[in-house]
């Protein structure tokens, strides 16, 4: 089969479409014929080795972790999935920018609703489940206020919508060009991070500070700086690492990798199929243009998800 491959830790422009053996389903695994795959920032870090301290990889590495497609083989012990089933899921380092991939039934794999196409389905798993886990980890509730930093990225677009669905007041970072779109997703206010200080502008909107800061951009001491936007005793949640002490009683919550609960992915897919969750496709590429897709994802500001379709 053909796949987008890194042969070692390497620059992104050295990725190639190469021939690899078609995977077989082991016990408790299914093989999926890929129809679409989406990119995430971690994919870039795995290729270059920027994340090798936390996520060492074996080579050749197939790029991509989000997939939508059709089951073509079910291994021993698999129940609930059979050849012909339409699915979406997160396959980790099994790789998804390929003609076939291997997935493990469980919380990270779900049946795809009939009215959810493969391109939009592939854009959901990692970003959508990360957003769910972030809001769950910090215990966001209705009536609270939340600042989402990185609101126009893959995770951020879901975080804004899911926080709004919880009846929280959402303040989101966005450029002037994206402000109307983000408000259409449920943000009550936006802060232009290119033109103003995010913390200062947030405190103008909520003088005592927001209850929760969801930061999808900063890490390390950068999180201590944005924690000033939280009220004393508030919470900050991030998928990146940061200080244990943020001052003023602000509680830090860090999730290094998302751990979804059973039904999370099914719920996201159902919401998307019913129109209750908007899935933004920022750019769509053919399989033959996969190397360019990675380059553009790394180098351009793209609102929403980058998806590669596989014939």
TrEMBL record:
SMART domains: PKS_ER. Coiled coil: none annotated. Residues 10-308 form the Enoyl reductase (ER) domain. This is NADPH:quinone reductase. It comes from Streptomyces cirratus. It holds the Pfam family ADH_N. It comes from the Bacteria.
């Amino acid at each position: 089969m053909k796949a987008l491959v890194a042969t070692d830790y390497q620059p992104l422009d050295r990725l190639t479409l190469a021939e690899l053996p078609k995977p077989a389903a082991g016990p408790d695994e299914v093989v999926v014929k890929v129809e679409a795959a989406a990119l995430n920032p971690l994919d870039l870090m795995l290729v270059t080795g920027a994340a090798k301290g936390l996520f060492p990889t074996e080579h050749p590495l197939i790029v991509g972790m989000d997939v939508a497609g059709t089951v073509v083989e079910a291994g021993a012990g698999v129940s609930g999935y059979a050849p012909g089933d339409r699915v979406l899921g997160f396959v980790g380092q099994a790789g998804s920018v390929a003609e076939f991939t291997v997935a493990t039934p469980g919380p990270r794999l779900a049946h795809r609703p009939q009215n959810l196409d493969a391109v939009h389905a592939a854009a959901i798993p990692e970003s959508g489940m990360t957003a769910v886990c972030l809001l769950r980890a910090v215990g966001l509730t209705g009536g609270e206020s939340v600042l989402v930093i990185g609101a126009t990225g893959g995770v951020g677009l879901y975080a804004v919508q899911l926080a709004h669905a919880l009846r929280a007041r959402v303040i989101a970072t966005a450029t002037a060009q994206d402000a109307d779109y983000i408000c259409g997703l449920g943000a009550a206010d936006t802060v232009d991070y290119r033109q103003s200080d995010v913390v200062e502008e947030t405190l103008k909107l909520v003088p005592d500070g927001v209850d929760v800061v969801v930061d999808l951009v900063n890490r390390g001491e950068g999180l201590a700086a944005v924690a000033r936007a939280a009220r004393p005793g508030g919470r900050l949640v991030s998928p990146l690492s940061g200080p244990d002490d943020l001052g003023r009683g602000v509680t830090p919550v860090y999730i290094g990798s998302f751990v979804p609960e059973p039904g999370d992915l099914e719920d996201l897919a159902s919401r998307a199929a019913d129109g209750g969750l908007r899935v933004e496709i920022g750019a769509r590429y053919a399989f033959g243009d996969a190397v360019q897709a990675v380059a553009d994802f790394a180098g351009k500001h793209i609102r929403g998800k980058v998806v590669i379709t596989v014939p």
